[in-house]
Structures are given as structure tokens and as C-alpha cells.
Fold these 4 entries.
Entry 1:
Amino acid sequence: MNKGKVLAPLNSMEDFNRDISYHVCRGDDNQIVLVGHLKDRFHDVRMELMVDYESLKINTARVNFVRHPSVDCPNVAWRMETLVGFTIGRGLSRKLQEIFGGGEGCGNLRVMLMGLLPLAMNVKAAAGFSDEQEMLESIREHLTGSCAGYAKRP
């Protein structure tokens, strides 16, 4: 027992929790709706993107900074619009680094988008399947070579 020792109070980052959630659904006009939400003690950031189902081209992209640690955080919101016209697929990581990297960007938006945008490829690859195992095989087929989970097999 530490008699006589006073423990230093925790700072706000020593007991920290961050939740990032994604919701994906089919929208009107052959669109995929992608919604992301990041929430922690300092942030409440919500984004929504509309993606063309056939081409996977981003048609709309917006973000709302409900809560943020700096008055400057919302200044990057306009950068979401530069995603409009981009087709989800090869070059995604590079594009997100280009738009949201560095001192003028936002690492939180980049992280959110890196998890959210590939889900549009999953929606397309899973189309038409009611059997979950068949759907997973179709996703594997379509996404082979995109990550370690879908590595190319000899």
C-alpha cells in the first residue's frame, strides 16, 4: 500500500474513449449512402457521402463538425467536396492523403474515410446474394489483391 503517496490526477487523455461507426445502405436513384460518425470527449463529427452504385463514383460528400476541439477544425470541411467525382478503388489511400494529410488537412477525416469508402466496394460485390457464404465468396473474388484478407492465391 502507498501510504502517504498522493496519486496525480488523470489528464483527459489517460482515460480516453473514441468511437467510430459506419452505416451503409442503398439510397434512391441507384446510390449507395455512406455515413460515418466519430465521437469522443472532444469530437462529434458526422459525414455522409452518396456514391453511384454502378461506377462507385462519389457524387456528394459532406461533413458536419458538431463538436470539435479547435475553432479551426471546421475549416477543412470544404475539402470533402474535392472527393466529388473520384471513383472509389485504386489510388484511394493516396487521394485521401493528398486531400486530408499535413497541417492543412485532418487526420480524423482521413481515418474515417479510409474505413468508410471501401464499404461501397463491398456493397457492390455483395449484390444479389441472400446466402451469406456465397456473398462472402463474391466479395473475396471482387476484392482479391486489395488487402491481406483478400490476398491473391496461387
Entry 2:
Amino acid sequence: MTAIEPKEVFDIFAQINQIPRPSKHEERISRWLQDFAAAHGIECVTDDAMNVVMRVPATPGYEDHPAVILQAHQDMVCEKDADITIDFMNDPIQTVIEGDWMHAKGTTLGADDGIGMAMALAALTGSDVKHPALEALFTVDEETGLTGANRLQDGLLRGKRLINLDNEDDGHICIGCAGGIDSLGRMHYTPVQLPEGKWLALKLRVDGLPGGHSGEDINKGRANANKVLAYFLTEIFDSTDMYLATIHGGNLRNAIAREAEALVCVPFDDRERLRILFNDRAAQVEAVYQANNPNIRCEMQTAALPQEVMSLPDTARLLAAVTTCPHGMIRMSADIPDLVETSTNLASVHTRAEADGRPYIEINTSQRSSIEAQKHQIKRHVEYALSIACDEVTHGDGYPGWAPNVNSPLLDTIVATYKQLYKSEPNVLAIHAGLECGLFLTKYPDMDMVSIGPQMYDVHSPKERLSISSTAKTWQWLKATLAAL
């Protein structure tokens, strides 16, 4: 990484990727940022949430120009392939470079938003970067709740112009984003013993799916492993007495589920009939999803009999809830072409146990919409579906969307800079993903904001990759914009 350009950016990104930084565990990266500031003689302050703000004065000749804030988040989504062994709490990311693309060895890369942090730090320390007074804001826990932006200390920021460095499309300028809210369902149940008779345990597994970002990839036809697994389970349940023992699918609320598996028990005498049924349904599923999920794999294998299972009525209720719970794009925007307006993600379904050993099923979902009323409407839809099985359904605090401002002076400058550099028009748009900018507006209503970043694909999945040439292009664009400001 230290041999590629822009060296000043990738040198810092290489250091960042040595530091474990899962969401809600930013202690080490926050400490590293403070040490970085001290080593470079940069003014640095923090707040109670572990957000970090650095400040440098204007370069000569720019002292009378208003300050600019560069903003990125400290945490990363930690996803891995099933065959990869890594401790995200302690191990560094293993970076791989292939041609123009940078990715990680079987895990997320952390370019979302490590590369944004690296560009902000390079701007603060770069000897060839001309700029007005700069502030750099590094927030915590963006990926699982926007906690840092929500708890940002009042008055911590001095500037009124902010460039968010958490975009993932080359040549795009984001000026608006969706708001979101998470929902959590819990279904407590009393396990039972299998009835008298001869039983067969089967493990059903769905994997090989691309997954991806639950906002930006939600309308790309990517299958949700939880939904596919639920289809197989309901087909078997409708065909015979099927007792569910355990179920595990998906991981993070903002990632589309890539893998899911369940352990079930069925009458031994139905084994051949169920094998034929499963193979037939698997062929149908793979045919339906093949175009956008070319590596989808559906398997059924025999397993050891569990000691306890879920009763038939409880199994029926759980399958009804998971099957009914919506997933995917709900509505496209009527005002902005190609923009998803409202969506929901059935993120994870897991068998858990309370401290006293009592089992329950935990179902996590996340809803997004650029229209506040629609966000709460789909939240309610999810709640009604989960209530079929769950004795407890709760919702997070949520976060607001960021309404586009097409009359932004900052937008005019960054568009003009792009056109001057590349002799083409940038794409100005709103996105369906969530950004922290909406929360910044609640604390700083006069803040003028845009969001840019280099080209990335498949963030929030182990296929996450970053374009090296696009990073260089975005870095030049950022430097030119700061000079123009």
C-alpha cells in the first residue's frame, strides 16, 4: 500500500488498517487519532462519545476565508467469509492489491470509511495542500446507530461548510440521504422434547450470496439468505412434522444477509421424499436468483439429533413472522430518478439464550426512507409482521434524513472545481444510504454540506473493494476544492 499513489493518503490508510475498529469499539482508533495529532503538532479535542476534532490554521493567503470541515467516521463494518479466521477485535486487516483494486483477504476492507479518514488527515498534514482554516471531525459508531453524530457535543465545530468523505461513487456529489430506524423482535419460547418415534436431524444452509450494503444495494436483486432459508423451511413444514432446533442467519443490521442455516428434525420415514422436495425447490431458487446471485448455494445434510426443539405451533409462528416480514425495496422516489425512496432489510435471525438459559429467537431489521412518514409506516409494517411470533418488538431512536439543498454555495464550488479538472459534469444526487449529515443539521442548522468519495463496490461485505485510481482522482479533486474555497 505504501508503494502506490497518492502515497500521502495510502500511507495513512495502511496505518489505519492495522488498528481494530469495529463499531462500538473505537477506543484504539480514537486514541490513535489523538496520538497522530500530537505527533504532528495539531490541535485536538474529543468529546464524551470519543468523537475527535482536529484543527489546523489556514495556509498563507487563506486566513480571511471561512473554515472548512472534513468529516469521516472511525468505525468499520466487520464481515468475513465463513472459511476465514480473524479476530476483528485484535487482528489487522490483511490488504490485497490486484491491478487498480484494493480489497481484503476474505473480510471487509474498511475503506468505508478508513479512506475518508486518511484523506482528511492527509489534508491536515499535506505540505502542498492550500486551504482555509481546517477542522477534521472523526465520529464513532456510524455504522450501527450514528451514535457519534447523535451525541456530538454542542459547539464543538466552528466551521459552517462541511465536506463529508463517506461517499462511494466516483464523480458523484451527494446532497441528500435517507433517514432510518432499526427494529428488534424477540420470541421467547419453551423448548420441548421430540415425540416418541424415529426422527432425522437435517441441517439446511444457504450461502454464497453477495450480500452488500442494505441501503445502496437493496434494489440490485441480491437475495437475502434469511428469506431464502425461510422458504425452504416453510416448504418442509407444510409437507411434514418439522421441529426447528436452531436458526442462524445474517449478521449486521446494515448488511444484506449472505448466509443462513437451520437445524430441524423430521420423521425418519420422510427422508427420501424430503430430499426430492428440497432438491426440486433448490433448483427453482437457484434459477430465480442466478442472474444477480451467481454463486448461490443451497444444501441439506444430515446432522446429530438435538436434545430439545421448538414446538410445532412455535415453529409455525416463527416461520410466519419471517416469511411475512418485508425485505427489499418498497418504493422508488417519484421526484428523483433511480432513487430508492423506502426500503427495509431483514438483517438477521438468530437463536439466542438469556442469562438463565431460557432460549429466544432474535430478529433484527432496519428501515430506510427519504420521507419521514414513510420510514415510520414501514417500521409499523415490520412490527406487525414480527408480532406474529415475537412477544417483544422494540425500535431504535432512528436518525433523520438529509434534505437536498440545490442552492448550496459549497455545491457550486465543488461542481465548478470538478468541471475545471475533468472537463465533464459531476453527478449531483441524493442516496438511499444513511449519512451523518442529517444529524449534523439538527445541531448546526446553517451548515452547508456535500459528500464525496472514491469508487468502492460491495461495501459491508467481504467483497468490498476500492479503486486506487479513483482515490487519486478524488484526492486531487478535494485538494483543488480546498484551494478554491
Entry 3:
Amino acid sequence: MTENADKQTLAQACCEQLKRGDGLIDHLGISIEVVDAGSAEVRMRVQEWMTNGHGTCHGGMIFSLADSAFAFACNSENQPNVAASVSIDYLNAAHKGEVLTAIATRTAQRGRTGIYDIEVKNDAGTLIALFRGKSQRISGELIATEPSV
């Protein structure tokens, strides 16, 4: 197996490990489309119960989708990470029935701190939100590995 294939396999295993402990993913109907070292793509269909009094998707639903992509991307290399800070800018409204896609990409990594940028778009390709997350590595592993000899 190539090094890239090994990294992708590890990223997928880390994603599955995180998903097992995350009930919100299933509740929101978030699907994991792609995960690789330092990146992830997730999708969610906006349902009626996700809309607010304006008839548009609650910002918290969009935030949760982007935050999930962030989590999968920054934990994709078997080094546990937590969010140190995040921000989101809502640029356009999302509506019932639309499929939203969040794509997370690592922009920078220095020591234990990573910066990830996440774009959320609807199925027409309209940019709905921009999310930026700063991750902090913590000790341990997501998946136990055998010690090196």
C-alpha cells in the first residue's frame, strides 16, 4: 500500500471512531462523504424542523455541520484535537430541502495548533457560510497503535 493510501485508511478509521461517539451526527442526518489527512467533506439536508421563524435554516444547524467537518479533518491523523476557538460568517440563507456540503481543509499546522477553513455551500453551489477553526492537539491516540520496537 502506498503512503497516501495508508494515510487515507487511517483518516477513515479515525473518522469512524469519532462518529461512534457523536450522537448529533446521526440526529442531524450528517453524512461523511470524504475524509483524508487534514481534510473532510460532510453533507446534510435541511429539514423542516431545522428552520427558524424566517423560514430559513437555523444558524446553529449550519454551524454544527461546519463544526463536524472541522472535527473530522483535525482528528484525521490519529492525534486527538479539540477546538480552541472558532468563528463563522453567514453569507447567504439556506432553505428547507437544500443539501448543504461543508468542506474542511487544513490551512496551517504549527506544533500542536492547527487552523482549518471550512466552506459551506448549498447544492446550487452558493456559498452559505465560512467557518474557521483553531484546533489544539491533546495527548493520546484515537485508535490504539502498537508500540514501535
Entry 4:
Amino acid sequence: MVVHRLDRLTRNLSDFQQIIAEFNAHNVALVSVTQQLDMSHHVGRLATNILTSFAEFEREMVGQRVKEKRAATLQNGRWQGTSCPLGYRIKNDCLLVDANESAIVKELFSRYASQESVTALIRDLDERGIRNKEWKTRTGKLRGGQPFNRNAIYVLLKNRVYLGEVFFGGSWQRGAHEPIIVGALWAQVQGLLENRSRRGDTRADTDNDTIFMLKGRVFGADSRAMSPWLSSAYKGRKYAYYIPQREIAEGAGVSGLPRLQAANLNNQVWSYLRRCLADPAWLLEYLPTELTAHADFDASLVVGRLMKLEGIADLLFPVNQKALVLRLIDKVTIHPDRLVIELNLDELMELILELLVDQPDLATTYRQLYSSARSHGR
């Protein structure tokens, strides 16, 4: 392993020791082009540890100085960066209130305080052509200027910069810029945000993979994934759905796609899979012709084995049903009036081969024919 300097490899002594241990385990030598170090001698190993310790110290000192400079800059009323929140503009490194934009910020806070729905806010802003903050990078490229979505609204409503505060030293502190939102309105909005969040987390629990077993495989007709979602608690119970991502960001109804109860979708997909196994002859049409047209291919045997699997489907535990679904279902596409289910042909072939475990020679022949066809893109 050749490096220009040791600190180009790492500036953490603990990491360096682990890397050296890994190198030694594989008989790999470390060479620094600009430093004469003999790692095979105890003096050389001491020197490398000292150099790495100094590199770690230097990194920490640089980080600390950057933090101190940022804190001092904000305390002096100077704003860092080329972007700033909607409602302000930057002049001479200071935040100044922008009259037009600040009116939009005040309107959003006031309308949310009056308990107007976020969906209605987003639609109104879009109809009026109001966009989020547009700014230029240091290289002159335009950023921002996008339509508001739910996330942008909530980020704006929680931004304490509008109270005249800035974040440094690990906490929000009074800044030098003029606030846009008064304390009473801010407190009212934060109270509403807190109360609504207490109704229950609506995002799906990532550990709850039984209800949302099709997570990552359900897509809308717009090619965007459908997101798992739990309703707010009603009489102590939550309801699981797959919801189009556009509706999460922009409001209900904007995608034109239905929200589906997870349990119903699971049942539909499971029923479809069982129908496929109950009458599997048509599935063979999707297998490569090199396989199905071969003299050794016994279609009746394959069909019979798949039908037997369907015959014991009711005896499978839920975890086994889920495993079979995830194995054979590749994608579920939701349209306004229908859903399209696509099978994973590679896994279907693997399942067929497993069902022929009592005929290993035949299974080997089928595997070779299938692999050959797939390698040629057929």
C-alpha cells in the first residue's frame, strides 16, 4: 500500500492501528512516499504512531477553529453562505428583511395558526405561482425556486431564524437580524404542530414488515414508489395504507392514484399468486424457448409440481406465505383503475428447480438451459 503521506491514509490513531493490523494479517506493506519509515522495526512503528497522533490533533484543532469562527461570525451579526431563508436577503454578509418575501412568510404562519390545512396552503401557493427561496451558488448557478410541498412548509414553520435567532454554540441564540414573526404567533403555530404530531406517528414502522411486506415493490403508474403509511389512531387502532408519494408531499388527490389498504393489497397479491400456481401452464410461456422447446423439458411434470404447491398453500404459516410472495412477486404497479403484478422469472425458475429435487439430473439440465438462454439475453 503506497500513500503520499500517512495523514492521507487516516488522521485517527485508532483507525490507523486497525488498518495496520488488517495489512499485517494479509502481508501488505505500507509505504509513505515522502516519509522514511520502517514499519518492521519498533522505532519505525513508534514514529508512525507519533505522526498519526499529531495528524489527529491537527484535525481536531482545525475543526475547533472552524466552529469558533462560525460562532464569532454569527455573534457579530454576519451570515455565512450564499443562501438564506425565505423572507430575507443577504447584503454585506448580513440578513435583511425582504418586504415581499416576508409578507409570504407572515401569511403562511397566520393561515396555519388559523388551522387552515396544509394541502389547501400548497394548492393556493401553486395557483399563485409562489415558489420557495431562489438563490445563486458561488459559481453562479441558480438553486431553489421550486413549488412548495409539505416538507418545505413544515421546515419553514419550524425555522427559528424568523424569531431573530441563529444557531451556534450548540443552541439557538439571539441574532443581529430583525425577526419576521412575533413570539405570540410563533408559540401558537408551534403548539398546533406539537398537538398534531401527538395524534400518532403516521409513518410506517420500518420493523412492521408483516403489514407492509410489499414495501419497495409497490409503485404508482407515474413510476414513483408508493409509501407505507399508518393512519392516525382512531379508537386505539391504526390503519395501514400504501400512499402515492406526490400526495404525501403535495396533498391528497394530486396524483390521481388511489391509496390502498395494505391488508387488501396483500390479499390481492396472494390471491393472484395462488391463481398462477393453480393454473401454471401459461407461466411456461415466459420461460426461454431454449428451455421449454428442448426435448428433455417435461411441461406436464413442471405444471404438476407447481399445482401441488398451490394445493398446500392454505397450510403455510404467514411467514412462509410472505416469503413465497416476496420471492415470486417482482413489482406491483398501481393505476387509477387497476393494478399490474409482475413476476420474478429468475425466482420462478429457481422454485421449479427446487420442486424437482427428487430428479437432480433433470434439474441440472434445466438449470444449464435456462442459464445459457439468460446469458444470451433471452
